[in-house]
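dude i think i finally got it to work??
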Amino acid sequence: MPLTDTSIRNAKPGAKPIKLFDERGLFLLVTPTGGKWWRFRFMFDGKEKLLSLGVYPDVSLKDARERRDEARKLVANGVNPSENRKIQKSARTNLIANSFEVIAREWFAKFASTWASNHGNRIIRRFERDIFPRQNDLRSIDFNFAAVAAIAYGLLGSFPARNLYMMQYRW
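look at this
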């Protein structure tokens, strides 16, 4: 019989972990400390695997079932959901590490020692005030001349009092 929200809320921890089974490989693991963890059990390459789907009540029964269904689709397509999750996490980490701001700060750190302190302060201040807030989460892979030009032209139109038109010749 499938789980209900009431039965999940009423589940009490015991001396050993308790498994409350739902359907199609989904179950709730109630730990002795009172934690309630959603798990999905599946077979991949002839081996039994477990995938964590979140913690109750942060992940509701409905959400856990949706996540289970997504994982089942991956298994049906021959993809290990655990490995797929690791790959996606790695890709997100790489995107963050390759943002324009990170690369610009690395560039600044590399060359700051060769500049006068006033000059270095002015450059990083301009980046922080003008460029970083307007990069719209562009990644360095996507950052090309057109993206830089769009930011520069946006700056020219938005701050006429700061005379940025004349500053463009100094960069």
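The domain at 5-96 is CATH 3.30.160.390 (Double Stranded RNA Binding Domain).
im so relieved honestly
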